[in-house]
Design goal:
Helices cover 62% and strands 0% of the residues. It has 182 residues and is mainly α. It folds into 3 domains: 15-66, no CATH class; 72-116; 118-181, no CATH class. It has helices spanning 15-28, 33-47, 57-66, 72-85, 90-99, 108-116, 118-129, 141-153, 158-165, 175-181. The termini are far apart. The mean pLDDT is 94. The longest helix has 15 residues, at 33-47.
Length: 182
């Protein structure tokens, strides 16, 4: 009689099962070539290999990219839109793309989008965190430093962040001036 909670380990992977795992993964998640290769490598370490020839993860990943299931540039643009809409700046977008394994060339349009949206995303961040013109009162020096540090961690430039944070609570926002600063 089998004990409860004990499972038989899954069988080692072969070429066909590796392709199935890759296809299943790209069907569930928006991904990059690097993330897919990392996932498949992890699965190989966990389950082992039973094929006659060594596994060729690169070929599987490139085949899915050729079929259009993996598109680093589209992933980068999507991630950039998501991050800037949440109020993150271009430096944070660049970090996220680098962490996802997106190359500089594939991420170029995404970074350009983040830079074009710099002022809007910085204002979104300030509004969400109730900073600068969106706050209830003017913070003391320590509060201003914390707010500035938060905006810098969110990937916004120092000059733009300081310009937004020095606006009085409830003040009219001059977008054109902020665009010049950014």
């Amino acid at each position: 009689m089998a004990r409860r909670g004990t499972r038989r380990p899954p069988p080692p992977l072969d070429a066909e099962r590796l392709k199935e795992l890759a296809l299943s993964y790209v069907g569930r998640f928006a991904t990059t070539r690097a993330k897919l290769a990392s996932y498949l490598s992890r699965k190989l370490r966990e389950r082992g290999w039973s094929g006659d020839v060594p596994p060729d993860i690169g070929t599987v990943v490139e085949r899915l990219a050729e079929l259009g299931y993996v598109d680093d540039a589209a992933f980068a643009l999507s991630r950039s839109k998501a991050l800037t809409s949440r109020g993150y700046g271009s430096r944070r977008v660049t970090q996220a793309l680098r962490a996802a394994g997106v190359g500089e060339e594939q991420g170029e349009a995404a970074v350009e989008l983040a830079e074009a949206e710099a002022v809007d995303s910085a204002l979104r961040f300030a509004r969400r965190r109730r900073l600068g013109p969106f706050g209830d009162s003017r913070p003391d020096r320590a509060g201003m430093e914390r707010s500035l540090a938060a905006m810098l961690r969110a990937g916004h430039g120092f000059t733009l962040s300081r310009a937004i944070l020095t606006l009085e609570p409830g003040a009219e926002i001059d977008i054109e001036r902020l665009v010049e600063i950014a």
